[in-house]
């Protein structure tokens, strides 16, 4: 399991790597949360080549004037000239890159994964969104969730899910290729036809197996998110009811009483949260690849 996971999603693919992702074109922002870093493509600036040329021309005028002043002061002419050229070139390159659509390079390091199939990409994007919901509940669950092992379990779940989805997109292509093989004019009991049918069955079995494994991870993520969110909402509602009871008691001039006995319910929610995280850790145990 990688100690860190870098995730990037552009308009062509989803890439994951234990190492920092590199952009082929465009720009992106990095958002780190625990051991997961999401690299989010930035919207192209839309600045055209003509606009960049005009900006470079406007920028060159004060640089030429400054170079002349430095030359008059005795500075060798090539030094301010070189600095001016470097400035214009740097600004030009940054503007050109900002105008491009952000696309990631395919990771070549061990542990890198690439998803290109729309269905697999959508499933992983949903898992990443659920993982954000899970992380948002952690500050409100002190004493219940240890952030470090929870972070490792969540990162491991995303990495394992990506590995399964990569297998599924390969199986999808394989199944399409197998289904495209024509058996016309070939006897049904031909060894080739029988071998083809066996491979189709094997591919179908692997498809079902990986689907079940991926669904288990997705369900575990959903349960962890819902358990934490439900606990926090119920605690917030209980606190609102307690404050309202105190206000009403003060207005009525009698000792306040709780609006509802929330202790047992909160205890149940606490157990549900702990169980959900335990199940998430069991789905992706340490040392599994």
Walk me through the structure.
With 289 residues, this protein is an alpha+beta fold. It has 3 domains: 55 residues, no CATH class; 50 residues; 167 residues, no CATH class. Helix content is 63%, strand content 10%. About 2% of the residues have low confidence.
How is the secondary structure organized here?
Blueprint: E1 5-9, E2 14-17, E3 23-25, E4 28-33, E5 36-41, H1 49-72, H2 78-98, E6 103-104, E7 113-115, H3 118-137, H4 147-179, H5 191-252, H6 263-283
Parallel strand pairs: 1-5
Antiparallel strand pairs: 1-2, 2-7, 3-6, 4-5
Helix pairs in contact: 1-2, 3-4, 3-5, 4-5, 4-6, 5-6
**Oligomeric state of the chains?**
single chain
Q: What is the averaged pLDDT score?
A: 85
Q: Please write the string of helix (H) and strand (E) elements.
A: EEEEEHHEEHHHH
Strands, total number: 7
Radius of gyration: 29 Å
Distance between the termini: 6 Å
Q: Which overall shape is indicated by the principal axes computed on the Cα atoms? A: flat
The helical percent reads 55-70%
The domain tally reads: 3
Q: Largest sheet, order of strands side by side?
A: 4-5-1-2-7
The low-confidence parts are 256-262
Assess the beta-strand content as a share of residues. 5-15%
- Count, helices: 6
Transmembrane segments: 59-79
Keywords: Membrane, Transmembrane, Transmembrane helix
């Amino acid at each position: 399991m990688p100690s860190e996971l870098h995730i990037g999603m552009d308009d062509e693919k989803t890439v994951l790597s234990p190492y920092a992702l590199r952009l082929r074109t465009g720009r992106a922002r990095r958002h780190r949360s625990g051991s997961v870093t999401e690299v989010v493509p930035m919207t192209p600036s839309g600045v055209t080549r003509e606009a960049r040329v005009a900006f470079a021309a406007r920028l060159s005028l004060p640089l030429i004037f400054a170079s002349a002043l430095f030359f008059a002061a005795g500075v060798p002419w090539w030094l301010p000239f070189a600095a001016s050229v470097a400035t214009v070139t740097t600004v030009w390159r940054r503007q050109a890159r900002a105008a491009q659509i952000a696309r990631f390079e395919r990771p070549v390091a061990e542990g890198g994964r690439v998803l290109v199939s729309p269905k697999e990409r959508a499933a992983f994007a949903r898992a990443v969104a659920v993982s954000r919901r899970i992380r948002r509940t952690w500050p409100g669950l002190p004493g219940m969730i240890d952030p470090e092992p929870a972070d490792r379990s969540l990162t491991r779940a995303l990495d394992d899910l990506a590995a399964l989805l990569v297998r599924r997109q390969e199986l999808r292509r394989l199944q399409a290729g197998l289904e495209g093989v024509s058996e016309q004019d070939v006897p049904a009991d031909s060894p080739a036809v029988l071998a083809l049918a066996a491979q189709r069955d094997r591919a179908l079995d692997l498809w079902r197996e990986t689907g079940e494994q991926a669904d288990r991870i997705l369900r575990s993520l959903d349960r962890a998110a819902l358990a934490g969110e439900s606990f926090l909402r119920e605690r917030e509602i209980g606190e609102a009811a307690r404050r309202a009871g105190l206000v009403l008691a003060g207005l009525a001039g009698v000792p306040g009483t709780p609006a509802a006995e929330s202790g047992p319910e909160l205890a149940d929610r606490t157990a549900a949260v702990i169980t959900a995280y335990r199940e998430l850790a069991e789905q992706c145990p340490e040392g599994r690849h």
